[in-house]
TrEMBL record, chains A, B:
Its EC number is 1.1.1.60. This is 2-hydroxy-3-oxopropionate reductase. It is an enzyme of class 1 (oxidoreductase). GO terms for molecular function: 2-hydroxy-3-oxopropionate reductase activity; NAD binding; NADP binding. Residues 2-160 form the 6-phosphogluconate dehydrogenase NADP-binding domain. It holds the Pfam family NAD_binding_11. It comes from Devosia litorisediminis. Residues 163-280 form the 3-hydroxyisobutyrate dehydrogenase-like NAD-binding domain. NCBIfam families: tartro_sem_red. The active site is at K169. InterPro entries: 3-OH-isobutyrate_DH-rel_CS, 6-PGluconate_DH-like_C_sf, 6PGD_dom2, 6PGDH_NADP-bd, HIBADH-like_NADP-bd, HIBADH-related, NAD(P)-bd_dom_sf, Tartro_sem_red.
Length: 291, 291
């Protein structure tokens, strides 16, 4: 199949690699020297997003944020200029659910289908083709995309209509971020009150406080191993999608907003490129705890 | 063994019942008509906490809050007046870790040992002798208490010195409360953005957002089954222990404080005696969602 892949970053590069390895004709844009191996493996570099959209039947995007997707789709020499009726755009970036619906509507006017399909699982998940993929769109678009998504991920769900994939991803990031904050506050309290956080974590693992975060990130907090993993800087961006979405939808997400503020402090402290479990360092600093 | 049990509420009554059923001599105080079956089963009612402390070698407390424990221990005709050297007080109430250390020190002056042993697992756990019990005290006190604790619970941990059990319980309530708030915010966002919360929950269960709270309380939120379970009113009290403890220890717990505020609103809305998963109703109300 003729596939376009735009956004060859830490995530996109191995994802595109899986599509090439499966024998698809993959058209690439903005191939930096660090991605030259994708061309050697058989990918075709083209000089614009427009050219990629012209050459491919399905165009996949994996970009940093909402404005990047906007620019690649609708900017000069963008995807929209190269699209023709019947093509499918799959946006695997993590961006605004509200804007996603607007993008899909504009592409529908060109006779093209749209699937939002953001992922979780990080760099390791991308490399191992083990990403969790949360999709929004029609069943037809989902079924058309599925064989490609299965080359990149494992737990692939159609959550609902266009935007529902992004909404699900935001919900994921809210829960993960706020659970990290919860475990951070609990452990900071335990430490200040003179209890051993490691023993507290053990005692809590069997009950209602149990979570993947307490298990994995709680252990990181205790062992002080804060190599990413998923960087605080990126999680702050995702909570920004939640906060911006909340504003657009007129709803209050108080703990999400506060946790984003705590991530601001974390970045101000120089922890932006540490794993998000390092949020506990900010809580500890607020408690006057050091080391 | 001669055991005193003071605090025959929803939790204490079945807990005392297990001790009587195991053949211990159990001395009770303030036996209301609803607990008369404990006397029929063999419990001995006495007319003061002081008399209970005189009759028993080990005195167990299961009371609502810090001031209740203070009054029963040190008030007129209280436990302290009936104690003599070598006796052990086990406080299974959920109260202030800081005050717990003060209580233990005062009893140590009388030559008595102290174990804080708060529980989680609720009324059902108490009835089924399946409570999780988090202990703080010396190893000697813990080993002396253990045979009795094993009649009431299953997952029994010595977390650290006196106060560490209460600290662990507070940490548990922080994590549980904040995770409920996290799932509530995520589901409210999903609903407002037009996604089906049930499908979002399903998609998230396999990843880093997975928790016992998402599993059990997330399902309650979707099915709107808010019978307790654990009442918001009681959880607010426990977050009060966290907030008061944070003040005593000069540390900031921003999401804990905000979640306690949300529980204030939940109680103002008339949801105080609903299960704590009903916190989502407050988030939905803040979003203008109804029903």
């Amino acid at each position: 199949m003729n596939i376009g892949f735009i956004g060859l970053g830490v995530m996109g590069s191995p994802m595109a690699g899986h599509l090439i390895a499966a024998g698809h004709s993959v058209f690439l844009n903005r191939v930096k020297p660090v991605c030259q191996h994708l061309v050697e493996q058989g990918g075709t570099p083209l000089d614009s997003a427009r050219a990629v959209a012209q050459a491919a039947d399905i165009i996949i995007l994996m970009l940093p944020d909402t404005p990047d997707v906007d620019a690649v789709l609708f900017g000069p020499n963008g995807v929209a200029e190269g699209l023709s009726k019947g093509k499918l755009v799959i946006d695997m970036s993590s961006i605004s659910p509200v804007q996603t619906q607007a993008f899909a509507a504009r592409l529908a006017d060109l006779g093209c289908d749209y699937l939002d399909a953001p992922v979780s699982g990080g760099e390791l998940g991308a490399k191992n083709a083990a990403l969790t993929i949360m999709c929004g769109g029609t069943t037809a678009a989902f079924e058309r995309a599925r064989p490609l998504l299965e080359l990149m991920g494992k737990n692939i769900t159609l959550v609902g209509d266009v935007g529902a994939g992004q909404t699900c991803k935001v919900a994921n990031q809210i829960i993960v971020g706020l659970t990290i904050a919860a475990v951070s506050e609990a452990m900071t309290f335990a430490k200040a009150a003179g209890a051993d956080p490691a023993k507290v974590r053990e005692a809590l693992m069997g009950g209602f406080a149990a979570s993947r975060i307490l298990e994995v990130h709680g252990e990181r907090m205790i062992n002080r191993t804060f190599d990413p993993g998923f960087r605080i800087r990126l999680h702050r961006k995702d909570l920004g999608l939640a906060v911006d979405g909340a504003k657009a939808l007129n709803l209050a997400l108080p703990n999400t907003a506060t946790t984003q503020q705590l991530m601001n402090t974390a970045i101000a402290r120089g922890d932006g490129d540490k794993d998000h479990s390092a949020l506990i360092l900010t809580l500890e600093a607020l408690a006057g705890q050091t080391g």
